[in-house]
Specification:
- It comes from Siccirubricoccus soli.
- This is Glycine zipper domain-containing protein.
- With about 100 residues, the protein is an all-alpha fold.
- The protein has a domain at about 30-95.
- It is built from 4 helices and no strands.
- Helix 3 (about 30-50) packs antiparallel against helix 4.
- The longest helix has about 45 residues, at about 55-95.
- The protein is elongated, with a radius of gyration of 21 Å.
- The termini are far apart.
């Protein structure tokens, strides 16, 4: 009986995933990184939580931790980008001055 109830779940899940990912087309780099971190955190948190019988709480806490990690990763990437651009500007100035 339980198996017949779950037959429609897989196509519905695939449709939901496709619609959700379709909404990411115009997302900024920050939104993509935070979303990816949240998704990965939810999966890992749910997996870990399932071992202790707390799948929902594990997924919820994993989502929050993953989103935070995605945001911190994005800030690190922005910092690296700024440092690179500053190096390019400094090298350009040095070439003009003949160093």
């Amino acid at each position: 009986m339980a198996m017949t109830k779950l037959r429609g779940v897989a196509p519905a899940t695939a449709l939901l995933a496709a619609l959700t990912l379709g909404g990411c087309e115009n997302a900024t780099r920050t939104e993509r990184n935070v979303g990816t971190g949240a998704l990965g955190g939810a999966a890992l948190g749910g997996l870990i939580g399932s071992f202790s019988g707390n799948l929902g709480w594990g997924a919820l806490l994993g989502t929050a931790a993953g989103a935070g990690a995605g945001y911190l990763y994005e800030q690190s990437e922005r910092s690296s980008d700024r440092a690179y651009q500053q190096g390019v500007r400094d090298a350009s100035r040095a070439r003009r001055r003949g160093y």
